[in-house]
Amino acid sequence: MITSDLRLPLAGAAILLPVLALLSPAASFGAPAETVAPDTAQTTAAAPLQLSEAEPTGRRGLNDSVGTAERIGEFGTSAPANNRVRMTGELSQPDDTDRFAVQLRPGDVVGASVSGSADVIGVAKPDGTVRVRGVNADSAYDYPPSSPLPRGGNSNIAYVAEEAGWYSVEVAGATTGAYTLTLEVYRPGTEGDTGRTQTVLLDFRGGNVDTRPLGTMLARGIPNAVLSPMSSFLPLWNIPLAEQVRLEEAVIATVKENLQTEVQDGALNPRVSVEVLNARTHPELVGQENVSQVYVAGRATESRVGGVGIAQYIDPGNFSHEDLALIHLSSFSGAANPANRVTLNNHLTAASDRVKFVGTALGNVISHEVGHTLGLFHTDPENDINGIIDAGDHLAVTQYGLGPDRVGGTPDDVNMRFGVDDYLPTGPGQGLTGTQNAKNVIAWAYAGH
């Protein structure tokens, strides 16, 4: 069993939980912030604005701090601003840092990349708090084709704005010389979908599935995988087949709570709107527009795709609306074994409400994978903040929600949530530092109408 995350930039898919081998059984800016218009209209420029850094060549210190950041007043998502900028500049000394101030609205999806002498790019909130910073980071390799955000360069990042105001964009590098900053901003991909609802369709039925969209370089998937249905795995958890409907309902309720109910509570976008439905009762939705499908079934040996859970894309801003994800139920139903940290049977005893625990755990794992398709990168499972989007090496506390008794389905179980947490220093989004506000990302991914 391989317990570290596997990310293969050339593969076009993201394995976002521990991998199992295929044969395995189981500060302000010195001036008050200007009011940002509350409208939601997107202005998309035909051509990017071409600018040059105001700091003269060979000089430094004029725009090196948050307080002295050079304002780009023409940039933004409200007309007549331009939502795309190409800024040329120069790092005059190895420790030179250039900063540019841009005005954002809540929900604005910012993408940035740097090339030339720079390999560091970052975004800080109006109070100076760094939200995301990348050093030789390629955050874009799992973006869907439909994402308009910048790719490539020496480093690229994405960020979903949490409040209105002037944000600081940092450019730096280990060498001197000229650089180019590509900076683009868009409204969320669902915001203009008036009258259309985003749906997450959970499919417990198994059957024939084309798993190639989820493939990796090591396990490419096949066009006609036959996945075993959830009913095949219930006996392994000692759950009667008669309880399958109740189990499916528990899974769906957990996903709905994670993606909408709790996100609405305290999130910045009050119009969060998503349906979580069962493919068994809504088969007509399979393959339809604005429907993301999650297969909750099968084994890695059947799908020919590695990992216990896998998402097709990482999509900040949710510009792709028909994503796939797969949860291998064999990974979670293996025999109790301390060496297998994934199986739920390690935490089931006579005291367990088995349907409640399995339903909640699977619902949180599904929410983790769906979170990736909405633009979430892994956060650090080693710190004191446990959350659903933590990397998968500690599932028992980050997604299963075990309480002090370490038994699932008992009164001390913990309600796991999306929150604000540190990026995973290595692994998915490798090279990213700062903190990710997962609730905010989801709230704007499901922007409502």
How would you describe the overall organization of this protein?
It is a single chain. This protein is an alpha+beta fold. It folds into 2 domains: 49-186, Jelly Rolls, CATH 2.60.120.380; 193-445, no CATH class. Helix content is 14%, strand content 24%. It has helices spanning 244-264, 300-303, 329-332, 354-373, 395-398, 438-445, and strands at 14-15, 49-52, 70-71, 84-91, 97-104, 109-116, 120-124, 130-135, 155-160, 165-172, 177-186, 198-203, 207-209, 225-227, 274-278, 291-296, 309-311, 324-327, 420-422, 432-437. The strands form 4 sheets. A 7-stranded mixed sheet has the order 3-5-10-7-8-20-19. A 6-stranded mixed sheet has the order 1-17-18-16-12-15, with helices on one face. A 5-stranded mixed sheet has the order 2-4-11-6-9. Helix 1 packs across helix 4 and helix 1 (244-264) crosses helix 6. The protein is elongated, with a radius of gyration of 22 Å. The protein starts with 13 loop residues before the first strand and ends with a helix.
